[in-house]
Write a structure and sequence with these properties.
Helices cover about 30% and strands about 30% of the residues. The chain contains 6 helices and 11 strands.
Amino acid sequence: MKDFVQGLRKILSNSMRDHRLVAASAADCAMPFVRPSRALAEEQGVEIRFAAVLLALYPLDGVWHGLLMQRTQYPGVHSGQVSIPGGEREVEDGDLMETARREFNEEVGVVIPKDAIFGPLSERFIPPSRFAVTPYITLLSRRPSWKIDPLEVAAVIEFSIESLLKEQAMRPLKMEVSPGIYHDMPAYPIQGHEVWGATALILTEFLEHWKQIPEQVRNMR
């Protein structure tokens, strides 16, 4: 299994190196408008906050799954939302990969070895919270036992990666993107949750790389 995982990681890493712009563009094209960039926000004097997330992939019942989480209710713009485990960079973090690793451990109680983390995918800017989010990926040979922090995590949400590749897996969801302004935003319905915004963008970009893996290999046959 270890060699199998290493083979998948190599394919994904090569795709993230060779097809980065194509995959990012595919995610951007799913949006009904051009999302604001960190560069534009900085030009406007916005004080940027840096964050990182870690998308964990692992086999479950013979099918590759990914992990999302629902945040608890708190006074903040991302209260109760579904996201990839992660959070804001802290002073002691050597880099954003370390941020993703630390936050993953704090939120779902699993220590991921540094050499098991790779990426990143494209940075995504979130205007309401001023976060510039860098996503990383880890491939695990088995599903960990989650030990969630109940102060930060209301629930873990596991999803089949292949389910997001099905026709019409992404659908439009009317959301208020700013006061009084609504747009049909691309969203993935996952276990009763509507996954949209930056999380949906990150997943869409990741899926473009996942498609580079032969279907027979993706399905562990």
